[in-house]
Structure formats: C-alpha cells, structure tokens
Amino acid sequence: MSNKLYAPIILLLVLAFLIGPFIIIIAASLSAGETLSFPPQGLSLRWVIKVFEVESFRASFGISMFLAIGGTIAALILGIPASYALSRYKVPGAETIRTIVSSPIIVPGIIVGLALLRYFVVPFNFGILFALFLAHTALILPYAVRVVSASLTNLRSDIEEAAVLLGCSRVGAFFRVVMPNIRGGILAAFILGFVTSFNQVPVSLFLSGPGVRTLPIDMLSYMEITYDPSVAALSALLAFMSLGIVFLAERFLGFSRYV
Amino acid sequence: MSDSRFLSLEKLTLSYGKNVAVPEMDLDIAKGELVALLGPSGCGKTTTMRAIAGLMEPASGAIVLDGANITRVPANKRPVGLVFQSYALFPHLNVYENVAFGLKLMGVKGKDLETRVNDGLKTVGLSQYATRKPAELSGGQQQRVSLARSMVMEPKVLLLDEPLSNLDARLRLEMRTELQRVQKESGVTMIFVTHDQVEALAMADRIIVMLDGHIEQIGTPEDIYNNPASDFVADFVGFENVFERVGDTIKTANGDVAISGDIDDATKGLAWRPSMVTLGEGPYEGTVRGTSFAGGTREYLLDTPLGQIKAECDAALPAHDFGAVLKFDLPVAKAAQLARTGSL
Ligand SMILES: Nc1ncnc2c1ncn2[C@@H]1O[C@H](COP(=O)(O)OP(=O)(O)OP(=O)(O)O)[C@@H](O)[C@H]1O
Ligand SMILES: [Mg+2]
C-alpha cells in the first residue's frame, strides 16, 4: 500500500481516538436508563437536569470556578512581572529560575499535592481552601510564565525606550506600551491556566476536606457511591464549556498563535 | 550660553561596566544646526546619542542643553527627541495615536491635540494614513511616522540613529531631502548618525567624524572632503592613496621615497584621491593589476615600488590592459596635507 492510502487511515484513527470518548460520554449522558452505560438505553435529558439538582456539584463547581479564576489571576500577577524581568533584564541565573518556575509541569501533580499537605497544611494549619488556592496558583504559574514570555520575546524592547523619551515613566511605559501588546498572550495564558486548574485532579486529591472539594474530586467520590449517568452528563457539560471558551478565544484572538 | 554652544558635551565619558566606549568627549553644537555623526561600526555613535537622550547614564562629564545642565535629568523629562533605527513604533496604536502619544502625556488635548498631530502628519506627508497600524506601512512610511512622533513634541534637539540605513537606495535619496526639508522648515537642532560618508556630505551643515570613541575631525562637508585632518578621515572620504611623511620623504611599503614640493612643516601625511594621480607620465612606474569601469571614469589598481596605488582616468581614453606598465606621478601640489597620521 502507498503512503497516500495510509495517511487518511491514520488520520481517521487519531480522530476516532480523540473524539471517540467524547461522543461516548455525550451518548451515555443522554441515556434514559438508571446506570452509566453505552450504548444508551433510550433517550432523555433527565440526567442532564439531575446534574443541576445535586447540591454538592453546585458547591464544588463554585469552588473549582473560584480556584480556576482566582488561581489564574494570582499566577498572572506573579507571572507577568517575572516574565518581564526574565526577558528584559540580565537576571543572574535566569535559566535556573525558568527551570524552577516550570517545575510543577515536570513534577507529577500527586507529589505536589502530597508535599503541600504534608509540609504546609498540616504543620501550619492552613485552611484547605487556602492550600488549594496556593496549589492551583503554583500549578498555573509555569503556563503563565511560558506563554507571557513567548509574547514578550516577540515584542521589541525599544518601544519602551521610545515611550520613555515621549514622557512616560518606566512603569508607565510598561502599562502603556508593553501590556497592550502582550494582551493576546495574557488571555491565552488565562485560558490555559483556567482549563488546567479546572481539570486538575492529582493535586486536589490530597487537598479536600469537609465541604471543600473541587468539582473533579467531587465527581470521583460521587461515582464511588452512585453509578448513574449524571456524571457523564456533567462531564459532557464541562467539555462543552471548555470547548466554548477555546472557540471564543480562537475566534476573537487567534488563540492558537500564542500556544 | 551663546547660540554656537546650544548643546555641549563636556568631558563626557560613557562606559559599559569597565569598558569605556567614549572617553572624555568635548563637543559643541549650534542652535538650528544639522549635524552628521559619521564613523565606522562600533565607534560609539549610538552610545553618544543614547547618553544625550538620557537612556544611558554618563560615567562622568556633563551635558548642557540651552544653558541647563541636563546630565542628571531623566530621559522622560529631557527636551530631546530620538528617532530609533528600528523606528520603534507602538504596534497596537495607529499612526494618529502614535503621533499623539507624547502630546497626550504632556496634557495636550482636544482641538489643540488634533491640530498638532495633523500638522505633524502633514509635515511628513502621511495625512491619509492616520488610521493605519504600523504593520500596514512601508519602511519609509514607518520612518516618517517615527519622525513625526518626535517632531510634534518640539524637542530642542532631535537625534536620529541611522535614520536611512533600513531603506532601499531610492527611498534613501528621497528621505535625505525630506529630512533636510523638515529640519530647515522647523529649525530644530538635529544630529543624525550615519556610517555613509556620502550621506553625511550631502545632508549635513557640519560633520563630526568619530573613531574608537573619540572625535577625529569636525568640519563642514567641504572641509572634511577637501582637507581631511588625519589618514583615517582621508581614507574614509575617498583618498585611497595615503602616506606618512617625514621631511622630504614619504614612507612606503618598500622604504622611504623622496618627494619634492611645497609641504607645510606640520604636515604628517600626504593623501591623494585616485583622480589626483597623474597617469601616463611621471617619475614612477606601475603594473596594472586590476581595472574597473565606473561610468565616466576607469579605475586602475597599480603594483608599484610605492606599494599599491589607485589611479583613475577618463573612461573615454583607451583602456590599459592587465599587466601593462604605466608611468604615473603623485603631484604634491594636489595632495591633501594631513595634520595627523597613525589612526589608520
Ligand atoms: N549594551 C552594551 N554593552 C556593552 N558594550 C556595548 C553595548 N553597546 C555597545 N557597546 C560597545 O560600545 C562601543 C560603541 O558601540 P555603539 O553601539 O555606540 O557603536 P556605533 O558607533 O553605534 O556602531 P554601529 O555603527 O555598529 O551602530 C562598541 O565597542 C560596543 O561593543
Ligand atoms: Mg549604532
């Protein structure tokens, strides 16, 4: 067989592999039956509606949203100045700093979570929510630094000097001519951070307590007790939410340029 | 302060860490002058400009502008404009907003702002491009925006770092006259950097030739062109045959050669343009090692007892073949007499 025939077949397999599970989840969530199954038994929206009725889902969705948005904002507040300093000044050991900042990407999340629990939450008596917030911020920071650094590298630094010569202070130049030009990168970092945080399981696994759980963890424990299709329905809804965000970002910002 | 000392550098020393790029420079620039800062790569032109603009702190010395010592005045408070070689336009702002940027920071608003920005755009002929983004402009147009952006601030001194080097040959000629026109019309004191002597000679009222961080010669274009002060300047403006002179001899690759003529006692060197070399007669002989046709003239590279000599004659005359032996002379009467040598 020639390459011409192989290529489309491989492409189809890859697509099936990527999209297949998603289709199965959607189908399963539309089932009318009592248990999670595929193919679905009949069609109904009852499990989709059920999702909104489960009290703990509502609470944990709120916490996940708070962590994803709050953690990402915190990571950007730390990450933007850090990226700026790394790209504009001759920081001694810049490479080492970059590596350290990126380490949460490299170190498995489960270790980060365990370490935070063992060395912060327990000895310092941190609240779970605060620990989760720290963990998620730390987790998002590398993405923020990477994406923002990339757009800073593409931006010539002489425009800052030009702004200063036209009357700006150094800080003013940063806000007037640097920030507007890395806006796309910041938004891309925000979306990446949000999605990463929202879907995070391993770190959050260790950091859950009474009344404080992220949505993915809540889903796991829900499934341990109840095996109905509402988890599939929730997964499908979350997937659509992520898709929607990425679609809007791509549509209005050309998101894929920055990642 | 007199008008001839509008901008003064006084023993200005500029360094990068331990490396001194410009040691103790003294320089006076008159009000309304168009000055070219000419010199080879790495001689400190950009460094000097950045120091005048305030982007670089001098190690020692002073900068005095219009009677005020501005050495410690921060860059954003100096009445100095700088047009960057890369234009440095703000990519997120359109042409109008780029030009309005500094004025807005100064607190200019409303009708006044509009008038000044539009006047600026008109001066550089870009009125119809006001709403374009920098990325949608040609290099020459970006250059004009950058010029307008600095000009509308009405700086006391406008600095331009290699303003023409990013443009193609035709645009460069156009921008030369454009810059001259803008400078003459506004009367702003302007210093531009170039490493192209033709550009400096064509545009400037006065040329400062720099070498290795110091000033080698300052003079009018005629001065620099006809009376170079050193072997370096002579070579830079096209005197391709340069010799050190001791008494009645010139030092050549093959030892001292006697010369005769009216030479000033202080003269340390003699230099001839190819066009000043007499070809076809004279006391010396050379073998043709290369010829090149340059339109109206033909250049010859000769191997001679004095070393290599470049000579030039009317292209209408019959060409000499490679290997031909020609008589030639270096007439002392025509030579430029150099006050200094040893910088080549
Ligand atoms: N940021 C810097 N750090 C250290 N040394 C520098 C720096 N910038 C310039 N130099 C040195 O200072 C000297 C003068 O440099 P400068 O940029 O002023 O030269 P220039 O005349 O503008 O050259 P060119 O025509 O290539 O632009 C050079 O020897 C250069 O190596
Ligand atoms: Mg330079």
From TrEMBL, chain A:
Pfam families: BPD_transp_1 (PF00528)
GO molecular function: ATP binding
Lineage of the species this protein comes from: Bacteria, Pseudomonadati, Pseudomonadota, Alphaproteobacteria, Rhodospirillales
UniProt signal peptide: none
UniProt record similarity statement: Belongs to the binding-protein-dependent transport system permease family.
Keywords: ATP-binding, Cell inner membrane, Cell membrane, Membrane, Nucleotide-binding, Transmembrane, Transmembrane helix, Transport
Every ABC transmembrane type-1 domain range: 61-249
Protein's organism: Thalassospira lohafexi
InterPro entries: MetI-like, MetI-like_sf
GO cellular component annotations of the record: plasma membrane
Subcellular location: Cell inner membrane; Cell membrane
Membrane topology according to the record: Multi-pass membrane protein
Major location (coarse): membrane
TM segment ranges: 61-87, 99-120, 126-145, 186-209, 229-249
Protein name: Spermidine/putrescine ABC transporter ATP-binding protein
The keyword Cell inner membrane belongs to this UniProt entry's keyword annotation: yes
UniProtKB/TrEMBL annotation, chain B:
Gene3D superfamilies the UniProt entry points to: P-loop containing nucleotide triphosphate hydrolases
GO cellular component entries: ATP-binding cassette (ABC) transporter complex
Keyword Cell cycle on entry: no
Domain ABC transporter: 7-237
Top-rank lineage group of the source organism: Bacteria
SUPFAM superfamilies: P-loop containing nucleoside triphosphate hydrolases
InterPro entries: AAA+_ATPase (IPR003593), ABC_SmlMolc_Importer (IPR050093), ABC_transporter-like_ATP-bd (IPR003439), ABC_transporter-like_CS (IPR017871), P-loop_NTPase (IPR027417)
Any GO molecular function: ABC-type transporter activity
Keyword terms, alphabetized: ATP-binding, Nucleotide-binding, Transport
Family that this chain belongs to: Belongs to the ABC transporter superfamily.
Protein name: ABC transporter ATP-binding protein
Organism name: Thalassospira lohafexi
